[in-house]
Amino acid sequence: MDPMKTCPSCRVAYADSVTFCPNDGAPLRPEDALEPGTIIRKKYRIISEIARGGMGVVYRARHLLWNEDAAIKLLLGVGADAGKQSASFLSEALVMRQFRHPNIVRVEDVDFTEDDKLFIVMEYVQGESLQQRMIRGPLRCEEVLELAVQACAGLSAAHQKGIIHRDIKPQNLLLAKGADGSDTLKIIDFGLAKVREDAGPGLTGATTSTTGIFMGTPEYASPEQAMGMRGDKLDARTDLYSLGLVMFEMLTGARPFAADTLLATLNQRVQSAPPEPRAARPDLNIPPGVSALVAKAMARERDSRYGSAEEMLGAIRAELDKLRGASSVETVVMEVHPASTPGTPTIKKSALPRIAAVIAVLAAAALIAWFVLHRPAPAPPTPRESATAPAPVPAAPTAPPTTLQPNVPETSEKPERSEKAEAPEKTEAPERPVIPAPASTMKVNPQDGLKYVWIPPGNFTMGCSPGDTDCDSDESPPHEVTIGKGFWMGQTEVTQETFQRVLGNNPSNVQGASLPVESVNWFRAHAYCNAVGMRLPTEAEWEYAARGGSSSLRYGIPGQTAWFRANSDGKTHDVAQKQPNAYGLYDLLGNVAEWTADWYAPYPSGSVSDPQGPAEGEYRILRGASCLGGIKVLRVSARAPRKPGNKTGYVGFRCAGN
User: How many CA atoms lie within 13 A of 357 on its CB side?
Assistant: First the structure.
C-alpha cells in the first residue's frame, strides 16, 4: 500500500504526491503523523516533529510523569518489508540500550503505541547536528579536535562492546549545548551497526549485512564498505575512516571526494588516495600534524590507519595539546593590589615566556609575606567553640553589597585583613559533626577509576557559620538551603594521573601521579567531569558536602584535616593523606582550591532549594583553600571569584554526579 497524506481540516486522504488539500488549501500531513498534543501510552505527549526519514519519524515529546523532554522515534513500517523493518528497529534499540556514555545518545525505553506502532524513547538533545554547524563554514582547528576527541571516546565505548557503527557522518553527530555554551558531541543512529559474534548475550547477530550489499552513506563510507565487504569482516577501522572524512570536512568546509553519481563516489574511495586537508585548503594554515593525523585516519588500506579508537584518541589529544601550547605563549600576569586598596585584579598580556610569570608570582608572594610580617601584633585568641551546643547566630549579619568587587590574588584566596589576628593552631578544637557519614555510600567510577561518595539530600544553613568572625560580606546573609536530591561527590580532588589519562595532558606545576591536578582553568575542569560522565558540583552542593552535617566553620583541627600555609611547605601533597570529614571526603579545606559550577553573585536573602547561581556572569566560584592559604580562609563558607579562563595558582577540582 502506497503512503497517503491527510488534510488536518477535512480529514480527506490523498496520494503522497499531493502537497495541499484541494478543498481548503491546508498543507497535508502524512497519514501516520502524530499531531502535537497526542498522548501515547498515557505518559508521552507529542510536542513537535523533529525529523522524518524513510523508515521513521522523530518527535520531541514530554514525559508526563517525570516532566522531562524526550525524543521518540516512531517506525513507519509499511508493505512487505514491515517485518524486516521492525526487526532492524528493535536491533537498534537493543544496541543503543547497552550504552551509558556521555558521547552516545541514551535509549530509555521501547514500546508500541495504542495502534501497534513500534517506537523508541531516547534522551532529547537540545542543540544542532554537526551537519547544521558545518553549513556555516569550516570550524576552528581546536574545535575540530575537541569534537573529534569526544567522537573517539564514544566510538571507543561502542567498539569495546563489539559494536561497529558503520554510518558515522555529520547528520549522526549531535552537538548538545551546555549551560556554559560548550558543546557535547553525541553519536546517534546505530540502525546499521554491526555486532561482533562475541559481543555478549542478546547482541550477537543483532544486525547483519550480506556479501555485495552496500551498507552506509556513500559520501562517508570506507573503501571496504564501498567494495561490499561482509559485515562480519568489518572492524573498528571502518568507523575511524568515516570519522577522518568528517574531520576533513570540518577543517576544510568540503568533502575530500566528490562525484556526480553514487557509483562514481564509491569508485573514488577505492581507487584514489584522499588529499591532506592542508593541501586542500592552504589558505587556512592547518597545522601539519593535524593534517597528517586526518590523512592517516583516511588511509585507503586498513592496516595504514589507526588500529583503534583509543590510538586515534591519543593522537588527537597530542595535537590538541600542541595547539593549546602554542596559543598559550602569551602569559597572563596579574597586578597585585596592596591589601589596603582591594579591587578587581588588573590583567595584562605579556609576550614573555613562562618564566616571567613564575617571577611575577614569586614577587607577589614576597609582597604578601612582607605585609603579613608587618601587621599589628595578634589579638588574644577567641574562645574555642563548644563541641556540644551550637554557637549563637549573629544578630545582624552584614548584608551583601549591591555591587561585588571581587579580589582574586594569585593563591586564589581573598587577601587577609590586617585588623584581624590569626589565632594559633593549637587553640582549634576538633569539630563534632551533627550527622555521621551513612554506611555503604561509595562507588568507583569506571570511567576515571576515582571513588565517589553518596551525599544524601537534606537542609543546611549556607554562608557565614555561627560565631565565625572572619567572614567576608559575600558570605552573608546566612540562608537556609534545601538539597532536594542526593548526589555523588568525588572523595578526593582529581589526581594528575587520572587527569592525564582522561584528557591527555598534565598542566600541573608540581608533578606527581597522586598529587591533585592544579593550574586548571574552569573549562578544562568542566571538560574532564563531562568526559567521565560527571559534572562540577554547584556551590551549594560543595558547601553542603564540606560541612558534613556540621554548622561549624571547619570540620576539624586544621593541621589534621588540611594542607595549608602552616604545614604544606608551599606545595601540594598526595590526596587523602589528612583526616576526612563526616562524609568521608578528603582535602576540602586545603591542598588546592576547587572550581564549582556557579557564576559568582550575592547570596539571596531568603530560603532557596537546589540553587545553581545566575545564568551568566564574569567570574566562576572557587571553594576551599589551597596549600598557600592562611587559616582565615580555611573555612567551609569562604568564597573566591575567579575568571573561568584563569589557570594560574594551586587551583584544581573534584567532580559530582546525579
Answer: 21
